[in-house]
Every structure is written in C-alpha cells, then in structure tokens.
Amino acid sequence: MFIDKNYLVKCGFGPYQAYMLIKQAKAIMVQRGFAYYKSNGVGKVPKETVEEILGTKLEIESVADIA
Q1: According to the 3-state scheme, what is the secondary structure of the chain?
Q2: Is residue 42 predicted with pLDDT exceeding 90?
Q3: C-beta atoms surrounding 20 within 10 Å
Q4: Torsion angle of C-alpha atoms 13, 35, 27, 14, degrees rounded to 10
Q5: Residue 6: partners with Cβ closer than 8 Å, 6 or more residues away
Q6: What pTM does this model have?
C-alpha cells in the first residue's frame, strides 16, 4: 500500500509534517537502492516506510477513504 501527503493530513498530521514524513520516507527508499524515489515528481511512498519512521502502525480502513 502506498500513501501520500494528503492521506497523512487526513490522519491528523499538519501539512508540513506530512510533507516532511514523505520526504524522509523517500530518502530511506533511496538509501535502500530505489533510485525511483529521487524524482521530485514522486509523491507516494510505501506505508511501511512511514510506519517505520513513526514507530507505529497507520490504520487504513478502506481504499475508498484514501481517494
């Protein structure tokens, strides 16, 4: 499952916090060898990576809630 800034805002994070979480997750993915995440146009990251940064699980009720 992939998430973006808008989903994190819906989870209660501020816009800047959500932006920084996505940015940190992208940096982690680049360190792991996924050069795709170097692009500025990529705004979605794996949910597991954000959970790793936060140290907690993000509950996703359904895909329809994200859209």
Answers
A1: CEECHHHHHHCCCCHHHHHHHHHHHHHHHHHCCCHHHHCCCCCCEEHHHHHHHHCCCCCCCCHHHHC
A2: yes
A3: 15
A4: -10
A5: 18
A6: 0.84
